[in-house]
Amino acid sequence: MIRVEHLTKRFGSTLAVDDLSFEVGRGEVVGFLGPNGAGKTTTIRVLAGYHPASSGRAVVAGHDVTGDSLAARRQIGYLAENVPIYPDLRVAEYLRYRAALKGVPRRERTAAVERAMQRADIVDRARWLCGKLSRGYRQRVGLADALVANPPILILDEPTSGLDPNQRVRVKEVVRELAADHTILFSSHILGEVQDVSSRILLIHRGRLRADGAPAQLTAKAGRTLHAVARCPTTVLAQVLAAAVPGQQPTVDAEGPVARGRVPLGDGHDPSAEVGARLLAAGAAVHELRVALPSLEEYFHLMTEHADRAAAAAGAEP
């Protein structure tokens, strides 16, 4: 449904998107991740026809976004990060106007607007002036706008921005419901939300694609870590972890008399029993031993900031 091929976008001397390629298949819910300035919003705006690409190609539902822009845009419901709405129109009026612009037949507009308001949970705000809405409700009106023409593809840029926790839960529920009938590209800075609703994640950094896969697959690639908590000096825990996992540098700190440590593991290696035995032999009281995959947040940090630091230390380009 979405195909991006060697997409590059420059703003003067600034390279915002750098030779980016990916595909989103029919019925997928794909999380689009990256730190601020990574190129997420620029890529989304190219797909939505807002920015032209400097080079490369983007195709939406078989339509080139440059050569067949109008047909491509008919296939997309786009929720911008900062929703542009007319403050002097009431919510239902605004959505009827947007439905008309999007080619919804006159006889179907009332039903289309009602359906979109129900999905975005704003029926109780139908008569409110858009200019009187909170940021959270403006975001939900933007979501209803994206849905009003019932397009096959939804591109949602920070859809939960400005929402309170209860509203964010509702938006995640809506995204899950929409996944049955729509292909969704979902951008968010809240990694837990992306993990909750996405079957696949695209991670970009400095305009380049750095990772593509299911959340569990990506975190598994980052490797497992042994976590140990024991009542003992930090030097003892550090020595035990270093001996049990040769070639890896453990990280150890203390909370009062309790030492906490972690050390990366190789594939299939679980030295928990050995670490426990060594700690007991050293007279330590073992509180916790567990092997864990990194969280999505830890993986995100590893692939972005940690990668930049490593590149800088090696004297290479990030």
The outline comes out as elongated
Number of helices: 12
Number of strands: 14
Distance between the termini: 31 Å
The SSE order reads EEEHEEHEHHHEHEHEEHEHEEHEHH
Architecture of the largest domain, CATH level 2?
3-Layer(aba) Sandwich
Q: If you average the pLDDT, what whole number results?
A: 90
In the sheet with the most strands, the strands line up as 6-7-8-3-9-10
CATH homologous superfamily name of the largest domain? P-loop containing nucleotide triphosphate hydrolases
Biggest sheet layout: 6 strands, mixed
- CATH C-level class of the largest domain: Alpha Beta
**Which parts are unreliable, with pLDDT below 50 for 5 consecutive residues or more?**
none
Content of β-strand: 25-35%
Helix percent reads 25-40%
CATH topology of the largest domain: Rossmann fold
Number of domains: 2
How large, in whole angstroms, is the Cα Rg? Answer: 24 Å
What is the SS-derived class?
alpha/beta
Word description of this protein:
The protein has 318 residues and is an alpha/beta fold. The chain has 2 domains: 2-219, Rossmann fold (3-Layer(aba) Sandwich), CATH 3.40.50.300; 223-292, ACT domain (Alpha-Beta Plaits, 2-Layer Sandwich). The chain is built from 12 helices and 14 strands. The protein has helices at residues 40-47, 69-74, 91-101, 106-120, 135-147, 165-178, 191-197, 215-221, 234-244, 272-281, 296-303, 305-313, and strands spanning 2-11, 14-24, 29-33, 55-60, 63-64, 76-79, 153-157, 183-187, 200-205, 208-213, 225-231, 251-255, 258-264, 285-292. A hairpin with a 2-residue loop joins β4 and β5 (63-64). The longest helix has 15 residues, at 106-120. It is elongated, with a radius of gyration of 24 Å. It starts with a strand and ends in a 5-residue tail after the last helix.
